[in-house]
Amino acid sequence: MTTPSQTVGPYLSLGLPWEDGPTVVPEGTPGAVWIRGVVTDGAGNPIPDALVETWQADPNGRFDHPDDPRGRVPGFRGFGRCPTEPDGSYGILTLVPGAVPGQDGRTQAPHIDVSVFGRGMLDRVVTRIYFPENTDANAADEVLRSVPEDRRHTLVAEKTEDGYRFDVRVQGEGETVFFDV
């Protein structure tokens, strides 16, 4: 006996967001920047019911986690969660991360890990946000170097007046690079 197929969601807006989820640091924190963007589908249409999660180090390259005993920046949570608006937009208020340890004693370029959940997606997609001012660090970053050169731009945010813009294209022409984790 076969069962009918089902799509996943839209359920994300029912239980996953929380009031201060988009604020990795409190508003008014010195040095805070907005990471804003739009999540779109393969046809370039906005996805109004996706969820964007971020996980990152603080400006000193430290994580707000018990496994990282190096200390932490007061008020810095390291984790953000923002549902998309009807126009597919999202915004996360955070601090630009510092470089973090990589494999074999190498350093990874400052980046933010991003997961995107959405209707019809059985699994999240995972990507990274790199910052355009870190040209040398980005060029040396082992993960970014593993991406074909003509697709790396999909992982580098664009500098804006109050922070950065990072759009996520889930599939199709100009698809954001996603990692199998």
Automatic annotation (TrEMBL):
<comment type="similarity">
    <text>Belongs to the intradiol ring-cleavage dioxygenase family.</text>
</comment>
<dbReference type="GO" id="GO:0018578">
    <property type="term" value="F:protocatechuate 3,4-dioxygenase activity"/>
</dbReference>
<dbReference type="Pfam" id="PF00775">
    <property type="entry name" value="Dioxygenase_C"/>
</dbReference>
<keyword id="KW-0223">Dioxygenase</keyword>
<keyword id="KW-0560">Oxidoreductase</keyword>
<protein>
    <submittedName>
        <fullName>Protocatechuate 3,4-dioxygenase alpha subunit</fullName>
    </submittedName>
</protein>
<feature type="domain" description="Intradiol ring-cleavage dioxygenases">
    <location>
        <begin position="10"/>
        <end position="161"/>
    </location>
</feature>
<dbReference type="InterPro" id="IPR015889">
    <property type="entry name" value="Intradiol_dOase_core"/>
</dbReference>
<dbReference type="InterPro" id="IPR050770">
    <property type="entry name" value="Intradiol_RC_Dioxygenase"/>
</dbReference>
<dbReference type="InterPro" id="IPR012786">
    <property type="entry name" value="Protocat_dOase_a"/>
</dbReference>
<dbReference type="GO" id="GO:0008199">
    <property type="term" value="F:ferric iron binding"/>
</dbReference>
<dbReference type="InterPro" id="IPR000627">
    <property type="entry name" value="Intradiol_dOase_C"/>
</dbReference>
